[in-house]
Specification:
Elements (H helix, E strand, L loop, with lengths): L3 E6 L19 E2 L2 E2 H11 L4 E6 L3 H8 L8 E6 L6 H10 L7 E5 L2 E3 L4 H9 L4 E7 L7 E6 L2 E7 L8 E9 L2 H8 L12 H10 L4 E5 L4 E3 L3 H13 L4 E2 L2 E2 L2 E3 L2 E3 L4 E2 L2 E3 L2 E3 L4 E8 L3 E3 L4 E8 L2 E2 L4 E10 L2 E2 L4 E3 L7 E2 L2 E2 L4 E3 L1
Parallel strand pairs: 1-4, 1-6, 4-5, 8-12, 14-17, 15-18, 16-19, 17-20, 18-21, 19-21, 20-22, 21-23, 22-24, 23-25, 24-26, 25-27, 25-28, 26-29, 27-30
Antiparallel strand pairs: 2-3, 6-11, 7-13, 8-11, 9-10
Helix pairs in contact: 3-5
C-alpha cells in the first residue's frame, strides 16, 4: 500500500526554553543530526518518501535545514500551521490542503524510537485497521495520552489522566487509512481545556463509531523529547546504540565505542560511548567521558565532560572542572581563568558567555 507521511514540527518547545528562543527544538542536533531527521529517516527507511512537514514556530529555519528532502531520499512538502491548535488540527490542515489523499502515517517530530516503524507499517497495511497506534509502558502515565485495552482492542483513550487508568502511553506515531473518515471525525471535535484539538479525541471518535482501532506495544525505548532531561536521555539512548566509527584524526586516545566525524581532531582522551562531531577539536588537556556528545565545530580545550551535550560551535576551556549532566548551547563560551576542581552542572543557552 502506497502511504504518505506527516511529520509535525510546529510547536514552540516552551519546556526547552531558552534554547528554543533561537531555534525550533526540532533542529537541536543529536549525534550530528537535527532531531526531526530521526522521524523523517525512520519514515524513509520504511518506504514512505512523500512526507509533509507541518511547521509554525521558526518554520523558515526548518525549511532551510531540510530543503526539498532530496539529499536524504525524501520528497518534502510544507504545511504551515499558523496557530498551534493541536495534533488533530495539524492532520486536518494536511488533508484540507490536499497533501494527504491516501493512507498516511503521522510522526511527531520530537519523538525518537529505538526500533524503526517498518514492521508496524507492514502490520497496519496487512490489517483491516482504520487506525493503528503504537503504545509503550511508562512509569508516569499522567504525562501522556494513554490507551485502555481490552480483549486485544483499544476501547478508550484518555489524555493525561489524573487518576490511573492504564500505563500504556500512546507513542507519537499514528497510522490512518481513510483521510475522508479522519475529516469526518475532526468536524465533530471541540478544543480541549488546552485550546487544542486532541489526537486522542480524534481516535476516540473512531472507537465510539465502531471503526477498528488496533495497536502494537513497542519493544525497546521511545523518547518524547520535550525537556532538558528528555534531551539528555535521548542522547544517552542514541549513544547506547552507537557503532564505533573514526573518520577524523586521533592523536590522543579513544577507548570504547566512539564516533569521530571527518575533520575532527582528538588530542586528548575520549571514553565511549561518545560522539565527536565534524570539525570538533578536543585539546590535549581535555577529557570527554561516557555518554557525551560534542556537536559540529565545537572546541573543548581543557576540563572534562560526562553525560553532557555540547551544541555546535561552542568553546569550553575550564581547566580542572568536570561538567556533568550539562547542556551547552551553540556558539557559547565557557571559560575558567583559574584552577577549579570538582563537578558542576551547567545548562546554558545559545550565544552565551560564562567566565568562571
Amino acid at each position: 500500500m502506497d502511504s504518505k507521511g506527516l511529520v509535525l514540527a510546529a510547536g514552540e518547545g516552551s519546556r526547552l526554553r531558552p534554547f528554543t528562543f533561537s531555534r525550533p527544538k526540532h533542529l537541536i542536533p543529536l549525534l550530528g543530526k537535527p532531531m526531526i531527521r530521526y522521524a523523517i529517516d525512520d519514515l524513509v527507511s520504511a518506504g514512505v518518501r512523500d512526507i509533509g512537514v507541518v511547521v509554525g514556530y521558526f518554520g523558515d529555519l526548518i525549511k532551510e535545514a531540510l530543503g526539498d528532502g532530496s539529499s536524504f531520499d525524501a520528497r518534502l512538502a510544507y504545511i504551515v500551521q499558523g496557530k498551534r491548535l493541536g495534533i488533530a488540527h495539524a492532520i486536518h490542515l494536511a488533508i484540507e490542503r490536499g497533501f494527504i489523499d491516501k493512507p498516511f502515517v503521522v510522526y511527531l517530530g520530537d519523538n525518537i524510537l529505538s526500533h524503526d516503524i517498518e514492521k508496524h507499517l507492514k502490520r497496519f497495511v496487512e490489517s483491516d485497521s482504520d487506525v493503528y497506534i503504537l503504545l509503550s509502558r511508562v512509569k508516569d502515565p499522567s504525562r501522556f495520552g494513554v490507551a485502555v485495552v481490552r480483549d486485544g482492542r483499544v476501547v478508550r483513550l484518555v489524555e493525561k489522566p489524573k487518576e490511573f487508568v492504564s500505563d500504556l502511553a500512546v507513542v507519537g506515531v499514528y497510522f490512518f487509512r481513510d483521510p475522508d473518515l479522519v475529516e469526518k471525525a475532526f468536524k465533530t471535535l471541540k478544543p480541549s481545556w488546552r485550546g487544542e484539538y486532541e489526537v486522542t479525541e480524534l481516535i476516540q471518535w473512531f472507537i465510539d463509531n465502531g471503526h477498528r482501532v488496533d495497536y502494537s506495544i513497542v519493544s525497546g525505548w521511545w523518547k518524547d523529547v520535550g525537556t532538558y532531561e528528555g534531551l539528555l536521555e535521548a542522547l544517552y539512548l542514541l549513544l547506547d546504540d552507537a557503532v564505533e566509527r573514526v573518520e577524523g584524526e586521533v592523536r590522543g586516545e579513544i577507548v570504547g565505542r566512539v564516533i569521530v566525524e571527518s575533520g575532527a581532531v582528538v588530542e586528548g582522551k575520549v571514553y565511549g560511548p561518545a560522539y565527536i562531531g565534524k570539525n570538533v577539536y578536543v585539546g590535549r588537556n581535555a577529557v570527554v567521558e561516557h555518554f557525551s556528545s560534542i556537536e559540529q565545530g565545537s572546541k573543548m580545550l581543557s576540563g572534562s565532560l560526562t553525560r553532557s551535550l555540547v551544541l555546535d560551535n561552542a568553546l569550553i576551556d575550564i581547566n580542572g572542572l568536570r561538567l556533568v549532566d550539562s547542556v551547552i548551547g551553540s556558539n557559547t563560551v565557557i571559560k575558567s581563568s583559574r584552577e577549579l576542581r570538582g563537578e558542576a552542572r551547567v545548562v546554558v543557552s545559545d550565544y552565551s558567555q560564562v567566565y568562571l
